[in-house]
Write a structure and sequence with these properties.
With about 325 residues, this protein is α/β, with parallel strands linked by helices. The protein contains eight helices and 15 strands. The protein is globular, with a radius of gyration of 23 Å.
């Protein structure tokens, strides 16, 4: 099915602020009454900075457990933005962060530790067992957390999962059991004219973006997957899963020659990935110095001009930016522990 299904709402340039047989049985011999077994911790779960216990569920029937949701990110020297990024994804409904640190030398570890006061954080240092490519790290995380989380989103620290309608991520992931991956399209935001690093949050500083159509990189997606259903990670954008891969509106996606790139521009009526790829000119220069995890991916100064798209003013993320700032202020004054 084509991504742009006719049954879906069309994209709009406007910003938008589910006979019984009786058998005699031999009586069982009487035995001494037994004491009900005591409930014991099922497993010990190692979070980033502490060990907590999960108690085995009681036997009596109860309502279905809520979805367990995590977002995975590989970081290197993201200390200036990782706190905002993590708190934002906490606010839209994620329970946990899986952070793989590729040898950061700045204050990234300290900022990740602060996030553990608000949500569960699993922190891993980049080691040989993670693999030397992004897709190998992602596959390793799927295997490691396939029983702990129902869904894991795999995105970068400059990507924010965004709902134009203000929806919670749980609304998106209440899918049928036949769906094993949901993909969200990129939407690139430019520098908004910033040469030096702004002091504002990313969500506040960068409010100009590319148009919905006409810029081919927007056809790329990022994936949220059921880790227990993952067969392999094809690339940082797409996975091969046991089940369907669909867009945010339930339509099965069709790829170009390469998985992770849509055949047509996506429907931006609601869910997308706000991709703050370039940020300021100073940020881009820092990115070039930092380098890429993928050995075949090279960034150049000229690419800044290619991706610095600012033709549409889009302040739709500002409402969430204020909530993120409020949480950051509470962390700063110690009211969150």
């Amino acid at each position: 099915m084509n991504v742009m299904s006719a049954s879906h709402p069309k994209s709009t340039p406007e910003i938008i602020p589910t006979a019984t047989r009786h058998v005699k049985r031999r009586a069982a011999p009487q035995t001494a009454p037994q004491t009900a077994p005591q409930t014991t911790p099922e497993t010990e779960v190692e979070t980033a900075f502490e060990t907590t216990s999960e108690t085995a569920p009681h036997a009596q029937p109860r309502a279905a457990a809520p979805l367990r949701l995590a977002v995975c990110v590989i970081v290197k020297n993201e200390g200036d933005g990782i706190l905002e990024w993590g708190l934002y994804h906490h606010l839209i409904g994620f329970d946990a962060l899986i952070v793989v640190d590729d040898r950061s030398t700045d204050h990234t570890p300290e900022q990740v530790k602060r996030l553990s006061k608000v949500m569960t954080v699993h922190r891993h240092k980049f080691r040989r067992w993670c693999g030397d490519r992004q897709r190998e790290v992602y596959l390793r995380m799927c295997k490691k957390y396939r029983r702990r989380y129902d869904w894991i989103a795999f995105i970068d620290a400059d990507e924010f999962i965004f709902s134009a309608k203000g929806s919670n991520i749980r609304d998106l992931l209440q899918t049928g059991k036949d769906v094993s991956a949901v993909v969200l399209p990129w939407l690139f935001f430019g520098s908004s004219g910033h040469v030096e690093k702004p002091t504002d949050l990313v969500l506040k500083a960068y409010t100009n973006r590319v148009a919905f159509e006409g810029f081919a990189p927007n056809k790329h997606v990022k994936s949220i997957v059921r880790p227990a259903k993952v067969k392999r990670c094809n690339n940082p954008h797409a996975f091969e899963v046991q089940g369907l891969t669909v867009d945010p509106y339930g339509a099965e996606v069709t790829w170009q020659h390469k998985r992770g790139i849509l055949t047509d521009y996506a429907n931006y009526a609601d869910w997308r990935i706000n991709h703050y790829f370039t940020k300021s000119q100073q940020n881009w220069a820092d990115r070039l110095k930092r380098g890429q995890l993928e050995p075949l991916t090279k960034r150049t100064p000229k690419q800044f001009v290619t991706y610095d798209k600012n033709e549409v003013h889009d302040p739709s993320a500002l409402a969430l930016a204020d909530k993120v700032q409020a949480l950051m202020d509470r962390l700063g004054d110690g009211s969150l522990g």
